[in-house]
Structure formats: structure tokens, C-alpha cells
Specification:
Elements: H1 3-20, H2 29-56, H3 61-85, H4 91-133
Helix pairs in contact: 1-2, 2-3, 2-4, 3-4
């Protein structure tokens, strides 16, 4: 991952805290930080898990991403359900959480797309090298 991605991931919770005050249904700062930490941990673990599985089996990025996205969705739904039912966080927390969820999903999708593009570019270069040798 590039430094710009890490910078964005660090600034995202602070941007959300700033925007939160302007919204009609604000959420506590603790709720926002908890949601960002949970989703950031899932996203980073998923990204590195996808890269790790790619080292074992070539061309498995798509299936790994699909599996990761499914597990992330299930864990997130369970987290929101527990937060609302057991810890008394209100429905606005769930709405904020889902918006954050899709932001992190879009970010990971873009990173995986770039990873797949780089892999395809490497394969194209190898094919052209083989053709020029023959």
C-alpha cells in the first residue's frame, strides 16, 4: 500500500468526526472511532490476507476478495447488531457504520483492482519477452 492510502486511512476518522457535527443525526465520537477501528482492522487484515493467499495460488485474487467481502459483511452486520442490541447504541450509529463500511469497501476494491492490474501488466510483459525471444 502506498503512503497516500495510509494517510487517507488516518485522516478518514477525523474527517468523519468533523462532518458528524453537521449531520441531523450525529453519533458520539467514541462510536465513530470504534466503527473506524473495527472496519480498518477488517480491511487491512483482508487486504494482506488476499495478498498472502495470492502467494500460494496464482490467480486467486478474485475468489479471495469475494470471500473476504462476504466475511467482512457478516462480521460487520453482527457487530452492528450487537452494538445496537447489547450496548444500547442507537440506529444513527448503524447508519453511520454502514456508510463507513462502503467507504472502506470502495477503498479495498480500488486497491485490489490496482493489484490485479499490476499482475496483468507483469504477465503481458512476460508474454512479449517470450515472443521476442522466439
Amino acid at each position: 500500500m502506498k503512503k497516500s492510502v495510509f494517510l487517507f486511512l488516518i485522516l478518514l476518522p477525523f474527517m468523519h468526526l468533523g462532518i458528524n457535527e453537521l449531520l441531523p443525526m450525529p453519533v458520539t465520537a467514541v462510536g465513530i472511532i470504534i466503527a473506524h477501528v473495527f472496519l480498518l482492522a477488517l480491511s487491512v487484515a483482508g487486504y494482506f490476507g488476499i495478498v498472502f493467499f495470492e502467494s500460494f495460488k496464482e490467480n486467486s485474487i478474485g475468489f479471495s476478495f469475494l470471500a473476504f467481502s462476504t466475511f467482512k459483511m457478516l462480521f460487520s452486520a453482527g457487530f452492528v447488531l450487537i452494538a445496537v442490541k447489547k450496548f444500547g447504541l442507537e440506529i444513527p450509529f448503524a447508519l453511520h457504520f454502514m456508510v463507513i463500511y462502503f467507504v472502506y469497501l470502495a477503498l479495498i476494491s480500488a486497491l485490489i483492482y490496482r493489484l490485479v492490474s499490476e499482475k496483468n501488466k507483469e504477465k503481458q510483459e512476460v508474454k512479449t519477452e517470450v515472443k521476442t525471444e522466439v
